[in-house]
Amino acid sequence: MKQLCIIGAGGHGKVVAEIAELQNKYDAIFFLDDANVEWCGEYRVVGTVSEYIKHVKTCDFVVAIGNNENRKKIIEQLLKANAVFPTLIHPCSTVSKSAKIELGCVVMAGAIVNADARIGRGTILNTCCSVDHDNNIGKYCHISVGAHLAGTVEVGDCAFIGAGATVKNNVTICTNAIVGAGAVVLRDITESGTYIGVPAKKMKA
Hints:
By secondary structure, the chain is of the alpha/beta class. The protein has 2 domains: 78 residues, Rossmann fold, CATH 3.40.50; 110 residues, UDP N-Acetylglucosamine Acyltransferase, domain 1 (3 Solenoid), CATH 2.160.10. Helices cover 12% and strands 30% of the residues. The chain is built from 2 helices and 24 strands. The strands form 4 sheets. An 8-stranded mixed β-sheet has the order 6-9-12-15-18-21-23-24, with helices on one face. The model has no long low-confidence stretch (mean pLDDT 96).
C-alpha cells in the first residue's frame, strides 16, 4: 500500500490532497498537524508534525504549509530522516518538457511553466500562476495565485510573490523578498523586505 502523508491540515493542504488523488498513485492520504483537528476535508489528521518519524519508512511526504520559512524547516528536517518527496503536478497545469522541477514542489491547476524554467525544491506554484521561459526560481518560494513572471526572471530562495503580481522580464528578486498582491516589479529587488504598488517599491519600516 502506497501512502501519502501531508503536513499542514489547512486550506492549502486540502488542495494538495486533491492533486495527489489525481495522480492515482496513493492508496491512502492522511495529514499531520499541530492544531487540534481530526479532519482536513475528507482526510484524517492522525497526529502532530513531530510524529512524522513513525511514517518515514512507509509514506511519501508533502509539506502543505504556505509560509516559506516554516515549509523549509520541516522539509529539511524530513530530508535528514531520508523522507521521500514527490512532485505533485495538477493535470490541468502546463509544464514544458524542458522545465526542471525539484522534489517537494506542488504545481496547481492552471499554472504554466514554460521552456527551460527551473523550479527549486519545496516551491509552490499556485493556481493559474505563470513562470515563463528561462526563469530560475529558488528553493522554498511561493508564486501565488494568478502571479505572472515574464521571461528570464531570477527569484531567490524563500521569496514570496503575491497574488496577481507581475514581474517584468530579466528582473532579479533577492532571497526572502516579499512582493505584495497586485504589485508590478519593473526593476531588480536587491534587498529583502516587502514591495508593493505599481511600480513596486519597498515599504518603509
